[in-house]
From TrEMBL:
Matches recorded under InterPro entries: MetI-like, MetI-like_sf
Family as reported in the entry's similarity comment: Belongs to the binding-protein-dependent transport system permease family.
Keyword Metal-binding: no
Residues annotated as domain ABC transmembrane type-1: 71-263
Domain of life of the native organism: Bacteria
PROSITE patterns noted in UniProt: ABC_TM1
GO CC, alphabetical: plasma membrane
Membrane protein topology class: Multi-pass membrane protein
Keyword Heme among UniProt keywords: no
Name listed for the protein in its UniProt record: ABC transporter
Length: 278
């Protein structure tokens, strides 16, 4: 009789916690279907009637730019950021984890120290550089830094993973005549796949949800991302179109949810397995 509660109690607590975590998503979905007069006045979760016109208005986009175009812009930036971080951060991590060169420990410590720098500290110098290069109001300031291993967090993450890989495989590759780059590409990179996928997942989510950096560099409406478009549902009287705004929020969340569900098993694998499994 005393064993049964020990079995169902953890599951009950997990189910309650799950409902609490999912409530904001349920509220967002329900609010996206509410009439305009119920969004801020009604406390009911479910609307009195479904207002599908909110999604019609949201699909029309903002400033003549459709949602599909906005999603394409966001996907381009997020995809470029993922590719840049995976390639550049893995190369830098391989150098720190496997290669011996002068002042490597000092450079690694300096790189880790940059994690303590707020993003706003480097934003102004970066903006001045890109402005002088004539790259402002383009996607280059949002993608190009990712190819320069500027994300110290992901470099540190991959370094820690690569240090746990067995060196015998790399030594065997050197005996067979492989150089450092060939060893990196053919041996280390496949073994580090869980860490790379973890980097890709977080990069995609953070870039997709980014608002501040995109607001700094993008001016033209046709170059807006979905996050910038969400802030544009304001008319001249400064009253927000809440229904379409929440409908566009639902549309913007869907790619992140799908991306996470597709790659979640790799994320768990990156936390739970060693380099010999994959």
């Amino acid at each position: 009789m005393n064993i049964a509660p020990k079995r169902w109690l953890p599951h009950t607590i997990s189910a309650v916690a799950l409902l609490v975590l999912l409530y904001p998503l349920a509220w967002l979905l329900a609010t996206s279907l509410k009439p305009a007069d119920e969004v801020m006045t009604s406390l009911d979760l479910w609307p009195s009637h479904l207002e599908w016109s909110n999604y019609t208005t949201a699909l029309d986009g903002v400033s003549g730019v459709t949602v599909t175009h906005l999603l394409g812009n966001t996907l381009l930036i997020a995809g470029g950021a993922v590719l840049g971080n995976v390639l550049s951060c893995s190369l830098a991590a391989y150098a720190f984890a496997r290669l011996r060169f002068r002042m490597s420990k000092v450079m690694f410590a300096f790189m880790v120290a940059t994690l303590m720098l707020p993003h706003h500290v480097v934003l102004i110098p970066q903006y001045i550089i890109f402005n002088r290069l004539g790259l402002v109001d383009s996607y280059w300031p949002l993608i190009l830094p990712k190819f320069l291993a500027t994300e110290a967090f992901f470099v540190f993450l991959i370094v820690q993973f690569m240090r746990g890989l067995p060196r015998e495989l790399e030594e065997s590759a050197r005996i067979d005549g492989c150089g450092p780059f060939r060893t990196y590409w053919s041996i280390t990179l496949p073994l580090a796949r869980p860490a790379l996928i973890t980097t890709a997942i977080f990069t995609f989510i953070w870039t997709w949800n980014d608002f501040f950096t995109q607001m700094i560099y993008l001016f033209a409406p046709e170059k807006y991302t979905i996050t910038l478009a969400l802030s544009s549902f304001v008319d001249q009287s400064s009253t927000s179109a809440y229904g379409p705004m929440f409908a566009m929020s639902v549309i913007s969340v869907l790619p992140i949810v799908l991306f996470f569900f597709v790659f979640q098993r790799y994320l768990v694998q990156g936390m739970a397995t060693s380099g010999l499994k994959g």
